Amino acid sequence: MPFIKIWIHLVWSTKNRAPLLTKDIRQKVFTHIRENGMTKGIHIDFVNGYPDHVHCLISLNADQTIASLVQLIKGESSFWINKNKLCPEPFAWQGEYFAVSVSESGVNAVREYIKNQEQHHAKKTFQQEYEEFMTKYGFAILGSPG
User: Fold this and answer.
1) Could you report the average pLDDT of every consecutive run of 10 residues in the chain (146 residues)?
2) Where are the alpha helices (DSSP H) in the chain?
3) What is the three-class DSSP state of 44?
4) N or C: which end of the chain has fewer CB within 10 A?
C-alpha cells in the first residue's frame, strides 16, 4: 500500500465571477462540499471563499488526479446548488481553476490564508489575487505576453 500525501491549493470562481455566494449560501455550499467530498473519498482539509470564488486545501490519494477531483467537486456542488435553489438564477462555476502544490511545511500558512478570506478581500479583489497567484507561480495571464 503506498503512503502518499500531496497537498493541493485549489481556487475556482463562479461563472463570470458573479458574486452569487452570499455569506449564508457560502456556508451551506462549503459544508456540502466538505461532506460530499468525504463520501467520495476526497480529503478536503479546508474550504472557504468569497462571493465570487472558492479556495480548497485538499490532499490527494494515490488514485486521484487534480482534474478528476475538481470535476467531482465543482460538478456535484453546482448541481446541488441548483437542485436546492440556493441562488435566484441558474448557478455555474467558471470552467478554469488554479491548482498548486503545497509543501508540508506550508500547509498551516495556506489554511490560515483560506480561513481569512473575508479580511483578505477587504483589501484586494479576486482579480488582484488571481493576478498575484499567476505571477507568483509563474503562470502566463490570459491576454498577456508569455
Assistant:
1) 88 95 94 96 95 95 93 96 95 94 95 87 78 77 45
2) 23-39, 66-83, 107-115, 117-120, 126-136
3) strand
4) N
Residue 47 backbone class (left: φ over 0; alpha: ψ -120 to 50; beta: rest): beta
Please compute, for residue 126, the number of CA atoms within 13 A of its CA located in the half-sphere on the CB side. Answer: 20
Q: Give 21: exposed, middle or buried? Use CB within 10 Å, 0-12, 13-18, 19+.
A: buried
Structural domains in the chain plus CATH codes: 6-136 (3.30.70.1290)
What's the CA dihedral at 98, 99, 103, 107 to 10 degrees? 70
- For residue 24, report the phi and psi dihedrals to the nearest 5 degrees: -65, -45
Report the C-alpha gap between 143 and 129 in whole angstroms: 17
66 three-class SS:
helix
